[in-house]
Amino acid sequence: MSALAPNVFVLPARMDASTLPQTHTDLLSRRGADLDLEASQVDRFGAQALQLVLSAFNTWREDGFRLRILEPSEAFRTGFDQLGFASDLDAHGEIAA
Questions:
Q1: Which are the contacts of 22, defined by CB distance < 8 A and separation ≥ 6?
Q2: DSSP conformation class of 13
Q3: d(CA 35, CA 50)
């Protein structure tokens, strides 16, 4: 988890219970501006991670800012697909690969 620039946040490789509390804190610290989540390194992505990402999308929308997923890894895309949300994400244009 690191920031490449103020508007790009690199998601951790493991998006699971071991990293989600810190990822949540890191996302909240970037609230109030457009944000890109760079997801190319994600190799573990489950239901809790999906909940965090979807919540972040809703929060950014409600705040009037843009949130995008950049370079989603295969594991990231598979997680969305297996949990039934791949088409929702694509329909909103939120993945910019």
A1: 1
A2: S
A3: 17
